[in-house]
């Protein structure tokens, strides 16, 4: 049975399932991906920032068990086996001590975590493209350019322009140095989440690709990820210590239609002062975040301002790494870093206050983290970007409403029309995956 066949079977036969579809990009999976399914007596957790309640779901029951999803998840791990594996996401509003709009009634839960009793590893084909795995670009064939996808054109909307202007006021007042300004888009499709995800993984392969289904009354949510960005990877070193690594992305350009155009876009990205400044600010923020949880003197930046290439974009990526202190749990470290600095701006707290003031809608799962945590201290999560979510079909059950977030980093050098245009083409492949007619892409 192929992984796609097993995925279809799992999603059809189980209300709760997950596919971490890394295709070789994840350190823990090598060239494998992981499919997990939950039986009725398996545990899942959901969180509502609006009510401040963490709910435990098992055997058809739902019990409120806490107010902080990170704390409840850590408690569940402490009470279980060191081999327990948890899969899920934490959305942008999952730290009660930080300012963020809670998910609304038409959003997926602010967090979903699942402990499947059945998991299965699948070997990926050896011909997965390097671009799909998120490797540094090394030339070769150019993927299908964005120009073949449905264009999101038109003037910059007044709502975005107003939010941009208010961000500029905060930047010029010195209250923040960079703000990740986002908004959401809604679309309907005849494709159910399984079909839409299989289309998405073909159109926009990414290292943090994955699918989550939590079809539970009162806490329904589907998440379809094609994220290129690492939130945090926690591994065990030979001496038993835990090493944490994050890879912030700041600076994005589309791929070119020809090899020459593609190389020129890549060169411009690497040299553009605005992009370099954005990336350096976020890298410095993450150095500070890691210093809060790592042993003194172990935080380093082994890669700074590297260009990584994906089927639709070139991106400017840095790597920050450190050795976790023994008195800091892995879940505690993930909480301290949350949300990703690349999705807030710098400084984090003040910038999140600005975001809460200027963004009209909640981010929900968007801008959070999605992946895998093991009770033995290892973890691997991506940032929730380039991701579709849905809470179920329309009343007539022949259409599915999908939601996605998009945006980018704003500095005093930013141009409103350029920033809005960038946010739109970041969303194009996601929306293209929802088209009913594959020939339309």
UniProtKB/TrEMBL annotation:
> What's a single GO CC term here?
cytoplasm
* Matches recorded under InterPro entries: ADC_synthase, Anth_synth_I-like, Chorismate_C
- Coiled-coil-forming residues are none
- GO annotation, biological process: 4-aminobenzoate biosynthetic process; L-tryptophan biosynthetic process
| Chain residue ranges for the region called Disordered | 127-150
Q: Which residues form the Chorismate-utilising enzyme C-terminal domain?
A: 158-426
Designated name of the protein: Anthranilate synthase component I family protein
Naturally occurring in which organism (per UniProt): Nocardioides flavescens
